[in-house]
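Lab meeting notes turned into a lecture example. A postdoc, R.K., suggested we walk through two folding results consecutively so the class can see how the record format repeats. The first protein's sequence and C-alpha cells come next.
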Amino acid sequence: VFPSALLESQVRPVYSLGASGLSQALERLQTTASALHTAAHPDDEDSSFIARLARGDNARVAYLSLNRGEGGQNIIGPELFEALGVIRTEELLQARRLDGGEQFFTRAFDFGFSKARAEAASKWDERVVLGDMVRVIRTFRPLVIYSRFSGTPADGHGQHQLAGYLTPMAFKAAADPGQFPEQVAEGLRPWQAKKLYRGEGFRPDPTHPPTLQVQTGLFDPVLGRYYSEIANEGRSQHKSQQMGVIETRGPQESGLIRLDAPGTSEKNLFEKIDTSIAGLAALAGLPPQALASELQRVATFAT
C-alpha cells in the first residue's frame, strides 16, 4: 500500500474550479478593475500580465488578437491556413482557461510574414480592422488598454506594427460617437478607457524605460502557484508554434509605458482609478450620489 502522501494527482484542476475558484469569484465581486490587451497573433500576448491581473487582482481581463494565426507554422500536424487557424484558436482558448482571461478576435486574416506596416495595411482593410477593435472596446468596456506593440519597425513583423499603430486609434475612436456610428445605432455606447499603455517590446529601449512594472512573479497562496507559473502553463498550450516553456518561479515583471500621459510614473496599473463597487455609478456616468446606498449595500454584502 502506497502512503497517501505520495498519491498526488497528475492533473491539476483548472484554477477557476473548486475552492480556489470560489475564492476568486467572491474576490471579483469586490472590484470593477478591467483591462484589454491587444496584439496581432495567437502567442503574441503577455501571458504573465493576463495571469497576474485575472488571477491575482481578480480583474476582468481580455486578449484581443487581430487574427487567428492562419499564416503561422505547425509543428504538430499537416494543417495550414484555415485549418491551422482553428487549431490556434483552440490553443488560445485553452490558454485563457488557465490564465483566467477572455478572448476576442477581429476579422483580419494572417497572410504570413510581413516586413512593414504598410504591407500589412495593404492586405487588410485598415478601417474594418479598426472598427472591429472599437467594437470590442465598446463591448468589453475596459478601464485600461495595453498594446503589446509600439506601431514602429521595432515591433518586427508588419502585422505587429499595424496592431501597435491601430490600438491608440481604437482607444480614441471608441469614445467618439461619430466614429463607427452604426455600432451606436446597434446599441453599443461609446467608451473611453482611462489609461493606455504599450509594452517594452521584444527589444527594450533603455532610452524609453517602463513607467510601470507589473509584478508577475508573485506567489498566490490560494492557488498554490506563482502567476508566472500559471502564465507559462497557458503559454505552453500554443503547441503548434512550439511555445512550451518551463514554468518559472521567482521575481518577474511586465514593463509597461504610459502613452496617454507620457512620463507618468505609477506603482499600480489602476492607480487613481476608482475600482470599488461604490464607484460603479460614476464609472457608468451617472450623477453624483446616484445609487449610493444601493451600491454600498452591494459592497458590504460582497465583503
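The second example is placed directly after the first for contrast:
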Amino acid sequence: GMATSDLTEMTKASISDNVNLLVYTGGCTQWQNSIISNSTNQIYQVKSGGVELKEDNLGSKPMTDPDTLSSFIKWCRQNYEASRYELICWDHGGGTLSGYGYDEKYPNDGSMTIDKIGEALQAADVQFDFIGFDACLMANLSTALTVEPYADYFIASEETEPGYGWYYTDWLTDLSDNTSISTL
C-alpha cells in the first residue's frame, strides 16, 4: 500500500515532457491498486495524472538481485537518454548489516547487500545526479562510499523513516518547472 501511495503522489505532480519518471515494479504479492501486476515485473512511466505501461511481462525477477537493478538502469539509459539521471531506491533498508530491499515473492533471497548495490551500479555504468534511498538506515558511511563513484549526491534516511517515506509531488513539480534546478 505504501508503494501505491508514493506512486499516487508522483502522479499528482505536474510532470513536463522534459522529465521521464520511470518506475520498475515487482516484489509484491498484492499491489493495492488495479494497474500493477502481482505476477510479473514491469516498467511504468509516471505522467501527470497517471502511469503508462512501457514494458510488460519482464518475468518474475527478485527485486533484490543486483542484475535486476542494473538491467533497469541500462534500460532507462538506452530508452530515455538524458542530461541528468536520478535513482531512488524505495523499500526497506537495513544499513550496513543487511543492505537494501525486501522482496515478498523471494523472501529467502534476503536484501541487496551494500557490496551488491555497488556491483549493480558498476554494471549499469551511469553517472547519476543523485542516488537516493527512500528507506531506513541507508545513510551510513558504507553506503555513501559505495555510491560515491556513481553519483554527485547521496540522499538517504538517517535512521528510521515512516512507511510513507518521501513526499514526491512538490519536488517533482519543481524539477519539471525547471530541469536545470540545483540538486541542493
